[in-house]
């Protein structure tokens, strides 16, 4: 990782700016910021502004100024100083994905994905390896956003210990004279230097050419606001002019033929199927309640060929789980709301709370299958998606979720027989579309995409379960068994 780290002790010191000079520069800057903001509308670029700094560095005052200088109707300000149960019961980055601005809008984050790592480091609740791992996840998160078109602007407001002390101890201009000291003033407890050293380390480890940090001297309010405004203006204009450092996507080797190794002759007779169905549905029912009591989430992904039997397999799963304990998410073409955000947003927002199951009938793998083959996604987009998917699933796993992914495989001949059956049976005709027939003509392209998907995303945290689907009875029991096994392994 290229590093352009600026040590705090090398920050340029300015003479205080007088009010008339500030107002003159602010008038011009305000017009420029407004023009940059209006130019965003209709573009593919959201703007994500991270404002960081020690308590008392003027972050809140700067947010007020930015909303004054720009059109506040196009700005979403997000604060993270209190954590809700809803946030704590999902993977850490969920709370931030919920608030990411759509394309053409600006999101200000006052408190961000940097806060938790810093506080844990300060309280010695995180070791070096974990801190480095957290920094890597942050770099990946920001890179995925930037690769998708986001303008990620990270500003650190730096103040001296004396200035911070004065800012935090001064009285608010109210009758009750309420002190402006935060609930957890870590820096006031003789920890200014320690806290600053941790932030230096964090900034250094998350400084990239693609998403750089900007260090702003916060001692003088006028300089601070002008400097921050200019940084935001320049970053937006650079991205609108297509000046961006995107992640280079490496080439991919020919994938191994995983599908060829699946024994499609596997089968179950009806009587045996009924016995197995009762057994494993009963077991899954019990495990779902144990998972609820232990606050363990299940995330199950169902993928497969058109006509492979995903729907009928899912019905056997949902038939075993209390409806209060799961949500079935059926994925189709993205809506306008989903199209306006980074690809993963639509999946992050569906995650259920700890102890509940989220079942995806099709999923984020559409990008590396349908969107790849049908050319709805550019080559660099679907190639980058493998890394995004692995990071997403790793985040789920590290939170404690049980991730199970099924690919239901059938032969081309079996698919044809099922398609014809659907056309002949009145109650099944709704299941067959012209698109299904078109997709069938591209079987070799889809086969290669599936094999590459398995090769690139079969991980220890989220392994693929390849299911022989020519016999529906066998496939359903195979899926129920795998879910039970995965839950039993995760539950105490």
TrEMBL record:
Question: Which segments does the entry list as coiled coil?
Answer: 263-290
| Keywords (A to Z) from UniProt | Coiled coil
Q: Where is the Polyphosphate kinase-2-related domain?
A: 18-239, 268-489
Matching entries from Pfam families are given as:
PPK2
Q: Write down the superkingdom of origin.
A: Bacteria
Checking InterPro entries in the record gives: P-loop_NTPase, PolyP_AMP_Tfrase, PPK2-related
Protein name per UniProt: Polyphosphate:AMP phosphotransferase
